[in-house]
Design brief:
single chain, mainly beta, Jelly Rolls, Immunoglobulin-like, eight-stranded antiparallel β-sheet, seven-stranded antiparallel β-sheet, 39 strands, about 0% helix
Length: about 575
């Protein structure tokens, strides 16, 4: 093959012009603040928050990694000060990308195949988000639905997901694969994606540990929509792109060796990285008991560190190995009452090296004659009003309880209606009725009864079920069908007020001037076929720019109604986020 142009760049980057596409390779160099230059020289581009957060400097730096014996890219993302290109301030973005002014190798035409391979390492304290939080996006340039990525790698709180979106005309598959995020944190991961870019596309995704070669995620689909109507080309994006949220803080993410080819996988080969590991992890510390009963003891300890990574912890009870976990907590069950048990914990790394012992603790289970604990943490809350007639009674598990008795009725001394080993009950309710209930925790030594609680149902409707919330209390306090999410620690307002119009009603006011959100969620069931929302919302004052969202996700689509101080906006989204 005769090559008309060959460009050799000092950063170790080689790519060919559009007439002889072969490979794009982006490597880090020894210049600490030269990350942007390395990326641009390779034929890629970047999007940063530097236009506002100028005091920090470049948000991609290059550092030496002693484990790999080479320089790597370090992506910085600050949840408070960063933004999205000075265009959106409710999110933060630090990404490198293909697109305009980049190598043709990063611009994939219809009915072509691309091969991506790169390496990344999430920090041990990395925390994903329930909203969008991407470390890889495959997006479309030109045509329709350009804001919606086709494929993303999205870390959540407990898993990393591969998410697909087919756009407005395609079949949206949503989450197609996932892996426990604990298996990724602190480890160098080699990622590989092969795509045939078409409405009837094909894709392969693989994540594996760079050192141990363990395959952590594998996904393949021979018929998947990977194109958009009117698109010019498909392109990759790597980095950290996420919505601002109270639970998220500054994040660092390492990336290494971005490789793209449109010719063959062998031009972006998997690395045969071999690292002998003879160094054991540090010993776990601060082993304590966080709770106990007659038959169980709960343990917790501080995590160990290792030059490559800790894979699990071995728990010894009374000097004998009996279980292992990959978390830093454990509940030991099926014990004997009134007996002394000793515990010690060891850490194990990926090579099988075992740490020294943690501190040893000795805990005695509760006596065989002890009564169960009194049930607590109930729902609905005591003296709740205007509840729906489909409300469910719930309570927390009691120490030393084997089963429970549910006392329920319209009298202040309710009668027994159910014996159960569960922690919920669904009695038949009538509208506009006051009910009394009580839970008894049972074991062979007797019964411990809770206080008698009460609640009152509201009006019924002819087209049940209707779930009603009235602002005489917070939604998550008054009801049991709302899920609370992402509330800031100290909002400016978070309380009940009397109606200033003198109606005698209460209203709930919430205000926060940060970029954080505060939401309640109600989850649909498989039987739901239609949704109707009736709500009354009032701004706190003309001087406050109140923003409220109503989002509905279901039936394969997602819609959002945004209420500003004086405007309404219907925003179209999709079910993948």
């Amino acid at each position: 093959m005769k090559l008309k142009h060959i460009l050799l760049i000092i950063f170790g980057v080689i790519y060919f012009n559009s007439e002889t596409k072969s490979q794009l390779l982006c490597k880090a160099t020894s210049i600490p603040k030269g990350g942007y230059a390395s990326i641009v020289s390779s034929g890629l581009d970047y999007e940063s928050p530097d236009c506002v957060h100028t005091d920090f400097g470049p948000h991609i730096t290059q550092v030496y990694d002693s484990l790999l014996s080479r320089y790597v890219f370090l992506f910085h993302s600050h949840i408070e000060k960063d933004n999205d290109r000075c265009e959106n301030f409710d999110r933060v973005r630090m990404e490198i990308k293909g697109g305009p002014n980049t190598s043709p190798e990063a611009q994939h035409q219809l009915n072509t195949t691309s091969y991506y391979r790169w390496k990344f390492r999430l920090p041990l304290d990395f925390k994903g988000s329930s909203s969008f939080c991407h470390i890889f996006q495959n997006k479309i340039y030109g045509g329709s639905d350009t804001d919606l990525p086709v494929i993303t790698l999205t870390p959540r709180a407990n898993v990393l997901e591969v998410i697909h979106n087919g756009g407005s005309t395609g079949n949206d598959l949503g989450k197609v694969a996932s892996v426990d995020i604990a298996l990724l944190k602190g480890r160098w991961i080699e990622a590989y994606i092969k795509e045939f870019h078409s409405e009837q596309g094909k894709i392969e995704v693989e994540l594996k540990d760079l050192i141990t070669k363990e395959i952590l995620l594998s996904y393949k689909n021979e018929n998947i929509d990977l194109w958009r109507t009117g698109a010019e080309y498909s392109r990759p994006k790597w980095g950290i792109y996420r919505l601002k949220s109270a639970e998220l803080k500054m994040k660092l993410c390492d990336f290494l060796d971005f490789c793209i080819s449109e010719v063959a996988e062998l031009l972006c080969p998997s690395e045969n990285f071999i690292l002998p590991d003879n160094i054991p992890p540090s010993a776990p510390t601060n082993l304590i008991s966080t709770g106990k009963s007659r038959y169980s003891i709960d343990l917790e300890w501080d995590s160990s560190t290792d030059n490559i990574g800790v894979v699990k912890y071995i728990i010894k009870r009374n000097e004998s190995n009996f279980d292992s976990v990959n978390l830093t907590l454990y509940s030991d069950t099926n014990l004997s009452a009134g007996k002394l048990y000793s515990y010690v914990v060891y850490a194990v790394d990926f090579a099988g090296n075992i740490s020294g012992p943690s501190n040893i603790i000795s805990i005695e289970t509760d006596s065989a004659t002890v009564l169960p604990g009194v049930p607590t943490l109930i729902s609905p809350a005591n003296q709740s009003e205007n509840l729906g007639i489909l409300s469910i009674l719930k309570w927390a598990k009691s120490n030393n309880a084997i089963s429970y008795r549910v006392y329920f009725g319209t009298e202040n001394a309710p009668g027994l209606i159910l014996d159960t080993i569960g922690i919920s009950c669904s009695p038949i309710l009538n509208p506009n009725t006051k009910y009394y209930w009580q839970i008894g925790a049972i074991n062979e030594n007797g019964e411990s009864k809770s206080p008698v609680w009460s609640f009152t149902t509201g009006d019924s409707n002819s087209d049940l079920p209707w779930y009603v919330y009235r602002a005489n209390n917070k939604m998550h306090v008054e009801t049991n069908f709302w899920e609370l999410n992402s509330i800031p620690d100290m909002p400016l307002k978070d309380k009940l007020f009397d109606d200033p119009n003198g109606s005698g009603n209460k209203y709930y006011a919430y205000e926060d001037d940060s970029d954080m959100n505060f939401r309640w969620r109600f989850r649909l069931t498989d039987k739901d076929t239609a949704i109707t929302i009736v709500a009354r919302v009032k701004a706190l004052s003309p001087s406050i720019n109140g923003i409220c969202f109503f989002e509905i996700r279901g039936f394969g689509w997602r819609e959002k109604l945004r209420l500003n101080q004086s405007t309404l906006k219907l925003e179209k989204s999709f079910a993948g986020y």
